[in-house]
Amino acid sequence: MKKTQLLTLLLFAGLSSFQAKAQTAELQIIHNAADPSAASVDIYVDGLLLADDFTFRSATSFLTLNSGVMINVGVAAATSTSVSDTLKNFEITLMSGERYVAIANGVLNPAGFDTNPDNRSTAFTLFITDGVRDLAMMPADVDFIVEHGASDAPAVDVLARNVASLVDDAAYGDITGYISVPPANYILDVTPANDNSVIVASFQADLSGLGGGSAVVFASGFLDPTANQNGPSFGLFAALSSGVVLTLPPVSQARLQVIHNAADPAAAIVDIYVNGNLLLDDFAFRNATAYIDVPADALLNIGVAGPGSTSVADTLKNFEVTLVNGQSYIAVANGVLNPSGFSANPDSRPTAFTLLLQDGMREMSMNSSDVDLRVIHGASDAPTVDVLAGTAILVDDAAYTDITAYLSVPPAAYTLNITPGNDNSVIVASFAADISTLGGASAIILASGFLDPTSNQNGPAFTLIGVLADGTVIPFNLSTGIEESQINKFNIFPNPASDMVQLNFAENTSQPTTLNVMTSAGQLVRSEVIPQGTSNYKILMDNLSSGVYFLHTKTDKSSGFQKLMIQ
User: Fold this and answer.
1) Rounded to whole angstroms, how far apart are CA atoms 501 and 564?
2) What backbone phi and psi angles, to 5 degrees, belong to 324?
3) DSSP labels for 526-556?
4) Residue 178 sits in the same domain as residue 94
5) HSE, side-chain direction, 13 A CA sphere, residue 223
6) Which residues of 430-444 are buried (b: 16+ CB within 10 A; e: fewer)?
7) Whether 393 and 442 share a structural domain
8) CA distances, 394 to each of 16, 294, 364, 479 (Å)
């Protein structure tokens, strides 16, 4: 009986296609009712069987039906024999020439299921919307609408990761207007409506082959199946105009940029393994990857091996990390393999080889007219410092391994002055940082190398580098912040010293020069005036304890700076 009724309805639909367009409308029906009792249903239209054994998360193609008259849509159990077996009936009237989608949603007995957090009714119903498209408005796009059909889920936003917000504050039963996007492979993040930093679930939407097409994307199932008669779990699905339903597979993925900033000469080139697989071969010091997709919410083993390694068994150091879905990270390799062979850190920070892992990273600036910067103190033998641009303090009291919050600055050419943490009048070094072309970009500024290479196996000298999100490394040229003629050039002998040192000036001092001796923390412990015309100057150090000190020479026209070790 059911098969005969279905044939009759199909003949009716075929005859109706010969009627004038103004007398018909088109309707697509989607089964999205997650109640296990309605997993498979029969659909009747005006007493005739339209869909036999119509299963959950299935869709019809667009059907041509009469418009301008009331149509009765009945839903019955899959075992029905006629329209008299329908459990729910809905009367609808379609406007001539319009195209509709009707989405069956909800549960047959709401008392047996979780209530909706926004107090929306969860009773079995049809959500109907008009203005539906069977093709995209532009052949180069994909057009889709989104239905919130998960009855126990609160209002949500849907974001195309690193692209745009697609759905804003959609509660159960809401159907959005059309969204047009280029055909591409997207990750769709579902978040609470009032907090996009919390990702409830993520799904891969590969729309790359759907250019010119349209779809209905529907949130489906239960957020908590155990509280809903163990019904189907939450997911995203897309119904095409042909009736094909695509599953958008769940994903858990983070973004990661790897930067090699370990100045140990023995680690100048390394191989990087992730979960046993070679990720980076012959990865050189002061190089970086672009941001890459990596698994999230799962333990990752990141191994570092010497160049020419043949397998993960050759790794020298291994680090276990778990990344959060939807987050962006940097992992900065830093430190030395054998700390006893290098200078200790002046602030007693560990200098052993490690990964500095930081979340909350940006691949572009928050404001397209700015450059967003994050600064990392990665020079293992350098003390706590400030970084100044002119008189503005960009970084305050950063010790080795510290990573600042983001700074937003206009794109321009800057001189970055490095000073001791508590004395901005002493410029340790200055660097020319031309970021005038980076508007809209983000970057990492890294302090890199050794302040005193001679005490660190003649490793690379201290400098600043910039790392962009695409992996480009920008060297910042060393300058003085003052003219070359204004530098007091001198060296110290002996160094390390015990009781007395001699300052040997490249040129005789042109005027009385103040000499300040400071601890690695920037505390002034001695101050003397070097007479005008001096080429060599001796200073007693016998009352100073062992450690790292800095000698700063200063006049009203010149400045100099050197590191001293007291044994």
Assistant:
1) 9
2) -90, 135
3) EEEEEPTT-SEEEEE-TTSPSEEEEEEEE-S
4) no
5) 19
6) bbebebeebeebbbb
7) yes
8) 73, 32, 19, 18
| R_g over Cα of the chain | 34
Starting at the edge strand found earlier in the chain, the sheet holding 490-493 runs 490-493, 500-505, 536-540
Q: Which runs of E-coded beta strand occur in 378-472?
A: 385-389, 392-398, 407-409, 413-420, 429-434, 442-448, 463-468
Query: Per the structure block, which two tokens stand in for 168?
Result: 């804003």
CB-facing half-sphere around the CA of 252: CA atoms within 13 A: 10
- Point out the domain boundary residue: 458, 479, 500: 479
Domain count, the chain: 5
Instruction: Give per-residue pLDDT as tens, 300-324.
Output: 999 999 998 999 999 999 999 999 9
Residues with Cβ within 8 Å of residue 174, at least 6 apart in sequence: 147, 148
What number of H helices and E strands is found in the chain? 1, 42
Q: How many CB atoms lie within 10 A of CB 249?
A: 12
User: Which ranges of the chain have pLDDT less than 50?
Assistant: 1, 3-22, 480-486
Q: Is 402:383 a contact under the CB 8 Å cutoff? A: no
User: What 3-state DSSP class applies to 243?
Assistant: coil
Bond before 383 cis per omega within 30 degrees: no
Rounded CA-CA distance 400/349 in Å is 7
Q: Rounded distance, CA 47 to CA 547, Å?
A: 94
CB 64 within 8 A of CB 24: yes
How many residues are present in the chain? 567
The per-residue pLDDT for 292 is 93
3-state SS, residue 9: helix
pTM of the model: 0.73
Q: Is residue 134 included in any domain, yes or no?
A: no
**Residue owning tokens 């970086």:** 288
Tell whether 135 is covered by a domain: no
3-state secondary structure of 474: strand
- What is the rounded distance in angstroms from the CA atom of residue 100 to the CA atom of residue 91? 14
Residue 262 burial by CB count (10 A; 0-12/13-18/19+): exposed, middle or buried?
buried
Query: In sequence order, what are the residues at sequence separation of 6 or more whose Cβ sits closer than 8 angstroms to the Cβ of residue 531?
Result: 509, 512
Nearest alpha carbon to residue 317 among 344, 343, 352? 352
| Residues 123, 55 within the same domain | yes
* Dist. CA 258–CA 330, nearest whole Å: 6
| Nearest in space to 93 (alpha carbons), one of 124, 62, 72 | 72
d(CA 259, CA 465) in angstroms, rounded, equals: 11
Q: Which of 349, 351, 330, 332 is nearest to 341 (CA)?
A: 351
Task: Using CB atoms within 10 Å of the CB of residue 245, give its burial: 0 to 12 exposed, 13 to 18 middle, 19+ buried.
Answer: buried
Domain shared by 125 and 199, yes or no: no
| Amino acid, single-letter form, for residue 303 | G
Place of tokens 């602030």: 347
Domain that holds residue 511: 484-566
Say what the pLDDT of residue 481 is: 39
**Which residue, 435, 461, 479, sits at the end of a domain?**
479
